[in-house]
């Protein structure tokens, strides 16, 4: 357990819906298209659910350096956080779009740095 990171999944819930209090309620919202992974539309690759389509299975690693360093991720079953409203491209203030572009460029540089920092790691983000 020394190299395991416990993940608390985060979801967006359509603004008109009541926030779920249980996993069963979350799964009902998910099935109706009223819940999805947090930022799932803005960054599908980094926020997508697990390969089986279950929203509470492990997502792609959201903490890149921990992944490259060899940590495993364990998603907590039944525990989650929610955000009211769907995040959509273009739905931010004007400066936010520029911030997101800067963040993408910084992340690309960070990934290159990780390759130098962990040269023997077979893992990439």
UniProtKB/TrEMBL annotation:
Pathway connected to this protein: Protein modification; protein glycosylation
A GO BP annotation: protein O-linked glycosylation via mannose
Tagged with keyword Cell inner membrane: no
GO MF entries: glucuronosyltransferase activity; metal ion binding
Keyword check for Metal-binding: yes
Cofactor(s) this protein requires: Mn(2+)
InterPro entries assigned to the protein according to its UniProt record, in alphabetical order: B4GAT1
A Pfam family hit: Glyco_transf_49
Compartments where found: Golgi apparatus membrane
Membrane topology: Single-pass type II membrane protein
GO cellular component, one term: Golgi membrane
Chief location category: Golgi
Keywords: Glycoprotein, Glycosyltransferase, Golgi apparatus, Manganese, Membrane, Metal-binding, Signal-anchor, Transferase, Transmembrane, Transmembrane helix
Catalytic activity: 3-O-[beta-D-Xyl-(1->4)-Rib-ol-P-Rib-ol-P-3-beta-D-GalNAc-(1->3)-beta-D-GlcNAc-(1->4)-(O-6-P-alpha-D-Man)]-Thr-[protein] + UDP-alpha-D-glucuronate = 3-O-[beta-D-GlcA-(1->3)-beta-D-Xyl-(1->4)-Rib-ol-P-Rib-ol-P-3-beta-D-GalNAc-(1->3)-beta-D-GlcNAc-(1->4)-(O-6-P-alpha-D-Man)]-Thr-[protein] + UDP + H(+)
Family according to the record: Belongs to the glycosyltransferase 49 family.
The protein's name in its UniProt record: Beta-1,4-glucuronyltransferase 1
Source organism: Rhagologus leucostigma
Record gene name: B4gat1
């Amino acid at each position: 357990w020394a190299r395991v990171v416990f993940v608390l999944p985060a979801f967006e819930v359509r603004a008109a819906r009541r926030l779920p209090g249980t996993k069963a309620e979350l799964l009902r919202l998910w099935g109706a298209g009223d819940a999805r992974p947090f930022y799932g539309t803005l960054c599908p690759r980094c926020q997508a659910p697990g390969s089986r389509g279950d929203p509470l299975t492990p997502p792609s690693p959201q903490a890149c350096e921990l992944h490259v360093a060899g940590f495993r991720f364990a998603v907590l079953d039944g525990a989650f956080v929610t955000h009211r409203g769907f995040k959509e491209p273009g739905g931010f203030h004007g400066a936010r779009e520029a911030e997101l572009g800067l963040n993408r460029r910084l992340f690309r540089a960070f990934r290159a740095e990780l390759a130098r920092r962990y040269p023997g790691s077979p893992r990439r983000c």
